Amino acid sequence: MSTPSAISTLGDLRRAVGQGQVPHRSVHEEVRANLIAKLRAGDTLFPGIIGYDDTVVPQLVNALLSQHNFILLGLRGQAKTRLLRALVTLLDEFIPAMPGCEINDDPLDPICAACRQRIAAEGDHTPIGWLAREGRYVEKLATPDVTIADMVGDIDPIKAAQSGLQLSSELTMHYGLLPRANRGIFAINELPDLAGKIQVGLFNILQEGDVQIKGYPVRLPLDVLIAFTANPEDYTARGKIITPLKDRIGSEIRTHYPAGRAQAMAITAQEAWLSRNGAGPKADVPAFVAEVVEEIAFQARQDRRVDKRSGVSQRLPISAMENVLSNAERRALAAGESAAVPRVTDVYAALPSITGKFEMEYEGELKGAETVARELIRGAVATVADGYLAHLETRQVVEWFDLGGSLQLADSMSAADVVTQARSVQGLTELAHAAGVAPGASAPLLASAIDFVLEGLYATKKISRSDERGYHSSEPAPRRPSREAGFDDEPRTPPPGGNKKKYYN
Predict the structure, then answer these.
(1) Among 37, 174, 210, 220, which one has the highest count of C-beta atoms within 10 angstroms of its own C-beta?
(2) Residue 5 placed within a domain
(3) Among 198, 228, 254, which residue terminates a domain?
(4) Can you give the residue range of the structural domain that contains 385?
């Protein structure tokens, strides 16, 4: 709801609530009502969340309609935190609150001793304030060093001394994060990392609404929606969720990685920094390059050398795509080209953004992260190229290399030079057009398609490539008879007047 300018005192608020102008409800009821309104209107519930429409979102909607506190279980890079932050859109635009109160107390039902005293003294003339929805979301990353004072609060002896109060007085309390999230949403990331005694404090305040601070019982009937995230493997790797707390979490929702390349490409296009704010050459990422970048993550998630318990975050293709485009930018600036069009070989230049995104099993550690990453890239190129080239006739190009042809390219070569060199290979340019680049395409785009065809043939083992980007036949050259076997390398000249046949030893 918008801020009613005419409502500035407690008396105004009571009349507005009585006339139905301002709703008075709990956070769970507020989220449920706004969610129902969005569902009826057909609005997008969680903007920016891709791939969860038929899986995670329905389960999350059910949890919110049931007024549950919930936990999102999933590996890293599965948009868990983004989902939690999107819950803010389900809160009212503004709600009335006691001005200056640390725990956003409800003027009509205060739980803070100081607010109760003020209302008792000023009555309906008590001034009220309005709290925006953005100020009602509190997020905390759980770490082993978090204390109960951080989460719930602690007794402040200085406040007690200055006010002349007993330490047991509620007015001496310094509130922690959870009370400060009162009448809002409190999100805890990586819940298993919290120490067991902190989790005990959480479930006690969730269930009973009270907690003991330094031995003093403090009653805090908070109105808060609590959401957690956790990695399923953390239950045994770094800690676990204690049973009493887990029992009080209403819904357990499993997240997942994108189901296919199309969803993954949409996420990367949304999250990666590809516009570059208009500075530098214009970015133009071909579809086949984007597919190769996404396929690396899919290959890594299936590779036995990569730790599946840790997961392969969707941040891998996002970071890799940014590095791939940067390498294309660097080449375009050096060549004086107006467009930065990435090539498949630019993906190898993005290795620094790939190797740190997955954990290795023992076999992978023996090989090394860079070697494994290179093999993952080659596997990704082979998979994507098979989809583009399987229905095309590649024999003419392969035979050109098999007959002894070779093509030397360089990563820094300009698009015009790549296209010129490629014309010497019979059928290569035509194959690049058939792979999806329309006739009349710009030189940078055609060069990218040529590079994709060559790398695709190399990845599918139809041709070979040296480390210096020299493409040649995958078949070994035929061995000629050697002297060690009793033969000369070259036939001898027939003796004068003798037989015209070639003589050998």
Answers:
(1) 220
(2) no
(3) 254
(4) 261-473
